[in-house]
Structure formats: C-alpha cells, structure tokens
Amino acid sequence: MIGNNGLTDAVIREIAVNLDAHELIKIRVLGDDREARIQYLEKICAELGAQPVQHLGKLLIIYRQGDAERSRIELPKAKKAGKS
Predict the structure, then answer these.
(1) 48-52: which pairs have CB atoms within 8 A and are 24 or more residues apart?
(2) Sites in the chain below the pLDDT cut of 50
(3) Which residues does the UniProt record annotate as the domain CRM (predicted)?
C-alpha cells in the first residue's frame, strides 16, 4: 500500500521484496490524485524492471518475471500474424 507519504524508499524496497516472492502483485494507493498514481506506476516499473499490467482505480497491478527456475507464471507465446 502506498500511503499519504507517497512512494518512499521503504515502499520501493517492500515492493521489490514482494515482486521477488510473487512476480505479480497488487498495490493499493491512498489518495484521489489519478496523475500521482500514474507517476507511481511508471516510477515503480522503471526502478524495479517491472511491467505495468493494469491501473484500475486506486489499484496498480505490476509484473516482474522471476528466475526461470522459480517462475510461477508462464506467459503465452505470441501468435504469428497473417495466419487465419
């Protein structure tokens, strides 16, 4: 959860720990500023090498692929264009 103090170093570290453990996480953001939430999402992804999945209201969902050995999520292979 990102509280009233915003995206502090401690929050970034906690997000990194949870991404290492779970790969896909949800982050709840307090406050009504949509632009701030978008900036938080961009900063988290840039600093931690993660990918944004969804920004739904006050909820940010991000993904960072873990080690191949421990990876829990298998992404679908891309479909080839042009085939019907």
Answers:
(1) 48/12, 48/15, 48/16, 48/19, 50/19
(2) none
(3) 1-75
Q: Per residue, what are the HEC states of the chain?
A: CECCCCCCHHHHHHHHHHHHHHCEEEEEECCCCHHHHHHHHHHHHHHHCCEEEEEECCEEEEECCCCCCCCCCCCCCCCCCCCC
For domain 9-63, give the fold: Translation Initiation Factor IF3 (3.30.110)
Question: How far from 30 is each of 13, 40, 61, 77, CA to CA, in Å?
Answer: 18, 12, 15, 36
**pLDDT at res. 75:** 64
Give residue for tokens 């873990």. 66
